[in-house]
Amino acid sequence: MNKAIFYHAGCPVCVSAEESIVDALDRQKYNVEIIHLGEKKEKLAQAEAAGIKSVPALVLDGNVLHINHGADLSALR
Amino acid sequence: MNKAIFYHAGCPVCVSAEESIVDALDRQKYNVEIIHLGEKKEKLAQAEAAGIKSVPALVLDGNVLHINHGADLSALR
Fold it and tell me: Which residue in chain B is spatially nearest to A26 when comparing CA positions?
C-alpha cells in the first residue's frame, strides 16, 4: 500500500483542497492520513523534513505537492 | 463519472507532479484528461476560464488545484 499524507491548517484554502483531492485519491492504492498542523504542532518537524513549505500540501510516497496556498509553514509555529 | 483535467506544459515540475498525482487518482470515480498547454495553445483560453494561473494544475469537477509551480499561464502564450 502506498502512503499519502495530507497536511493542512484548517484554513479555507486547506478545507477546499482537502474536500477535492483527498476524495479523489484511489483508496485501493493509497493509505491516506490527514494531519492538522494547527492542532498537532509536534508534526511540524516531520512536515518540514518532508520538504513542505506551505499548506495545504499532499505527500505521495515522499513526493511533496504544494496545492494552492493557504499558509506558510513558518506561520504555524 | 467525475471529471479531472490535468494541465501542464511539459516542464520538469509538471512531469513530476503528473507522475504522482495522476497516478493516484481514483479511476473508478474520475475520468482523467491530460492537456499539454505548450502543444495545445488553443486550450489556453479554456484553462484560463477554469481559473488556472499556473501549471501544473489539476481541475477536479471544476475546482482548481495549482500544484507546486512550473510556469505561469501567461508565459505559455
Answer: B26
